[in-house]
Amino acid sequence: MDRASLPWRRPESLGALAAVWHLRLSGRRATRVGGGPGWLRLTLEAREDAAAPTHLFLLARAGAVMAWDDEAPLPRAWADALGWAPQKRLAAAQLLGCRLEAVSAPADDAILFFVFAEPDGRRFVLAHQFFGQRGNLVLADGDGRRLWSAHASPHPATLAAPPAPATPPPAGPDPATVAANCRELGPSLLGPLLLDEAFAEARTALRRVADAAQRLGVNLSRDLATADGGEAVRHAAETLAIHLHAVRRGTADIELPDAAGTICRLVLDPTLSPAENLDRLFQRARKAVRGREHIARRLAEAEAKQQRCRELLLELDGLADAEDPLAAVLAWRAEQAPLLGAGKRVVAGRREAPPEATPYRRFLVDERWEVWIGRNDRENDELTHKAAAPDDWWLHAQGVPGSHVVLRAGGHPEQVPRQALEKAASLAAQYCRARNSGLVPVVYTLRKHVRKPRRSPPGLAACTHEKSLMVPPGLMPGVVPLNAAEAGDPGR
Q: Do 302 and 217 belong to one domain?
């Protein structure tokens, strides 16, 4: 249907709708106020001759700028798809207990005005704007001062004084017919729209996870093809072991025959004894083997995730034939939240409003050590130079952009075990540009050795006394997210 032909887009139809609503609804008290992003539901008390209250559904969303009244509530799946906010977080909850005094519409603009009055006489004006891509809902006080709006920068016409209720001219559309048309047309347009949005959101989430798994698989395949399995280092260690008695401390470079008689060139640390060099070579060989095994394991997991996404896409397409496709998609989306992320969160059949933002990403390592991670350049600056204590450990991926990471040491950095540092380093690797690599170098030092260069942009830091770790990115065992938003798939 052409948008311009909708009754909510024509001032003469809105005038008729305002007239019939003013006649039927004025004088009634608002007993409930609900809604969420871009929509409101106002429940008005029942008349003496009616068995049920009347619900006003006012929507200002892209593709759904409409209004209608009905005695029946929205289907639960529709309300879940639209998204609910707790009443205490709705600014329009100020209308609770107020009486609707008037409903009116200007003769030359697509706006409905609802005038409410508190028992003490204070007035509120709720303006429903129907023009524009997503319209708007604007709540103002009796003097036209904006108290709340569904979208930023409300049109000045929504803050103008509402016109007095008027009877539509006889030549105009029949008010009862317009109200019935809105009551039928609104749900018939909204239902398919919400279903399309739910399927699109689910497919987008699947595609995002599948694409990330594919990119990770490509990078890990490259890393696996080029990774040293430790054979060369182990061969050097075995050669050194054969001639250990003949090598003197302080030797930096030496050529020795291996067990087969082939000359092998060894590079040693002259500050270490031959036995210490031998231990270091064997340790490097074991670490290389572990790194290769870890890359292979992560590659298998990435390939399994891609296959799972392909299976889920077929499963999602099959939901179109369900008895209630919208409810089925929402239930499927909630079930797959561990893989796809929380998305639009639904709790107890209602969408939960986003939690209040907590500074920094927060994780708990080994049930003791708290790790804070900046989400952006501003938080990186604040975390490093204001929030962190001088004796906290500071970590950052080496040579690539990434988040600042602070491991809280409680004034005793020497008591933090190396294992905890490695797990914090893996988080630093996860929240950097190199997070799709098999292993990432991460530098760490005490926060007191980190400074902000003069006149440098936000997020830039320089450090001294640093050491480095080679770690795989991700959440290692024993690392638990403390922020609800980080409980899904981690990533920058």
A: yes
CA distances from 154 to 123, 133, 416 (A): 19, 13, 53
Residue ranges of alpha helices (H) inside 370-477 are 377-382, 418-430
Please give the structure tokens belonging to residue 80.
Answer: 């879940």
In a domain, 181, yes or no: no
Q: What is the pLDDT of residue 28?
A: 94
CA distance 255 to 258: 10
Query: Residues 100, 27: one domain?
Result: yes
> Half-sphere exposure of 323 toward its Cβ, with a 13 Å CA cutoff?
0
Residues 157 and 201 occupy one common structural domain: no
Residue 392: what residue type? D
| Count of structural domains within the chain | 3
* Judgement on whether residues 318 and 452 belong to the same structural domain of the protein: no
Measured over the CA atoms of residue 303, residue 304, residue 308 and residue 311, the dihedral's sign is positive
CA 152 to CA 128: how far, in whole Å? 14
Same domain, 110 and 237: no
Question: Is 0.90 topped by the overall pTM?
Answer: no
Report pLDDT for 291.
Answer: 83
In this structure, the answer to whether residues 345 and 386 fall within a common structural domain is no
Q: Which helix (H) or strand (E) holds 276?
A: helix 274-318
Structure tokens at 21: 């609503």
- Domain assignment of residue 61, yes or no: yes
| Ramachandran region, residue 437 (left: φ > 0; alpha: ψ -120 to 50; beta: rest) | beta
Structure tokens at 280: 């270091």
User: Do 282 and 377 sit in the same domain of this protein?
Assistant: no
Do 206 and 244 reside in the same domain of the chain? yes
Q: Is residue 178 domain-resident?
A: no
Give me the domain span that covers residue 409. Answer: 361-484
List per-block mean pLDDT (blocks of 10 residues) for the chain, which spans 492 residues: 79 94 94 92 84 92 94 92 81 91 94 95 95 94 91 91 83 89 95 95 94 92 76 89 91 92 93 92 84 88 94 95 94 90 48 51 90 94 92 95 94 93 95 91 96 90 94 90 57 44
Place of tokens 């630093």: 428
What was the pLDDT predicted at 294?
A: 86
In degrees and rounded to multiples of 5, residue 122 shows phi and psi of -65, 140
Taking CA atoms, 399 is separated from 402, 409, 433, 439, in Å, by 9, 25, 10, 13
Q: Which two tokens stand for residue 319?
A: 């939901």
Predicted pLDDT at 356: 40
pLDDT, residue 320, reads 93
Domain CATH for 158 = 2.30.310.10
